């Protein structure tokens, strides 16, 4: 058994990586995007949080959440999101009689400061380029990059070259 301990910080800002079961590439299918959007909306209604950034790739996603003051329950939010996406989708069952759509676990990182937040924002938005899905972050439709440009967080041409602050970052 792993000795891993999750970092629970009430009102914390977190970076997450969530992966599909056996890295099956189904997340960018139209039905999956719709289900994922609806799952996020549904969970956000009952258990609010702010999403600063997201990128959805065929076999995984990354995002940054800001939880409300006094709230650190991101595990329940992820459980519900995965459940809502899975409802109605056909999938083989695993030994525990669960649909084999998601890896059971996910990776989280408590963001410590503005620099940590910025590096993870850059990592999220550059990820489709890193994986060879597109040549520029602005070309990937399943990303919050365009919203980040609209907010003034990025220039529209950002990411035409690999950002130097991403050297050595691996969260897959």
Word description of this protein:
It is a single chain. This protein is α+β, with helices and mostly antiparallel strands and 172 residues long. The chain has a single domain, classed as Transposase IS200-like (Alpha-Beta Plaits, 2-Layer Sandwich). It is 31% helix and 15% strand. It has four helices and four strands, in the order E-H-E-E-H-E-H-H. Strands 2-3-1-4 form a four-stranded antiparallel β-sheet, with helices on one face. A hairpin with a 2-residue loop joins strand 2 and strand 3. Helix 1 crosses helix 2 (74-86). The mean pLDDT is 91.
- The poorly predicted ranges are none
Radius of gyration, in angstroms, nearest whole number: 16 Å
Q: Sketch the major β-sheet.
A: 4 strands, antiparallel
The count of domains is: 1
The outline comes out as globular
**What structural class should be given to the helix and strand makeup?**
alpha+beta
Mean pLDDT: 91
Largest beta sheet: strand ordering: 2-3-1-4
Distance between the first and last residues' Cα: 21 Å
> In CATH, what is the homologous superfamily?
Transposase IS200-like
CATH topology: the name is: Alpha-Beta Plaits
By CATH reckoning, the class would read Alpha Beta
CATH architectural group: 2-Layer Sandwich
């Amino acid at each position: 058994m792993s000795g891993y301990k999750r970092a629970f910080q009430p009102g914390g800002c977190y970076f997450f990586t969530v992966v599909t079961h056996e890295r099956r590439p189904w997340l960018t299918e139209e039905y999956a995007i719709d289900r994922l959007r609806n799952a996020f909306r549904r969970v956000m209604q009952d258990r609010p949080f702010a999403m600063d950034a997201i990128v959805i790739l065929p076999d995984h996603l990354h995002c940054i959440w800001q939880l409300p003051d006094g709230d650190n329950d991101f595990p329940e939010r992820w459980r519900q999101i995965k459940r809502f996406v899975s409802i109605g989708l056909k999938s083989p069952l695993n030994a525990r009689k669960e649909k084999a759509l998601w890896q059971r676990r996910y990776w989280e990182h408590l963001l410590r400061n503005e620099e940590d937040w910025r590096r993870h924002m850059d990592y999220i938005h550059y990820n489709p380029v890193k994986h060879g899905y597109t040549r520029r972050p602005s070309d990937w439709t399943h990303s919050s990059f365009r919203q980040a440009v609209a907010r003034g967080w990025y220039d529209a041409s950002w990411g035409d070259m690999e950002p130097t602050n991403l050297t050595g970052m691996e969260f897959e």
